[in-house]
Design brief:
This is Argininosuccinate lyase. It comes from Leisingera methylohalidivorans DSM 14336. Keywords: Signal. This protein is mainly beta. It has one domain: Immunoglobulin-like. 11% of the residues lie in helices and 40% in strands. It has two helices and six strands; from the N terminus they run αβββββαβ. It has a three-stranded mixed beta sheet with strand order 3-1-6. It has a three-stranded antiparallel beta sheet with strand order 2-4-5. The chain is globular and about 35 Å long. 21% of the residues are buried.
Length: 108
């Protein structure tokens, strides 16, 4: 069984090995669904493709949340989000202003 990502480990995963700048985006990712979140992708809304899986082999269990840092140097707040779950379901959401929202919650 793969370990649950802790907030500290998640911060390391999402930091992309880059220093934090004012343009970097931080938000809370919450799994309020009934299945483990096993893949999580975030891409700028202007992009035509998804960025890599930010969970990198880990998972986020139902009822848990982690801090996400997008340190891509972009000054945008508008992103698309995709999540894949252990039960085979997927969820996508587009054009989200994550600066305004401060977090994103996956639900059933």
């Amino acid at each position: 069984m793969k370990p649950l990502l802790t907030a500290a480990a998640a911060a390391a995963v999402f930091a992309f090995q880059a220093p934090a700048y004012a343009e970097d985006l931080q938000f809370q990712l919450i799994n309020d669904s009934s299945a483990d979140l096993v893949e999580f992708n975030v891409s700028s809304a202007s992009s035509d493709s998804w960025e890599s899986n930010l969970l990198e082999g880990g998972y986020l269990a139902p009822g848990y949340e982690i801090g996400v840092l997008i340190a891509d140097g972009a000054t945008t707040c508008v992103y698309d989000i995709r999540g894949s779950f252990s039960d085979g379901s997927e969820a996508e959401d587009y054009g989200l202003d994550l600066c305004e929202m401060g977090g994103y919650t996956f639900t059933d």
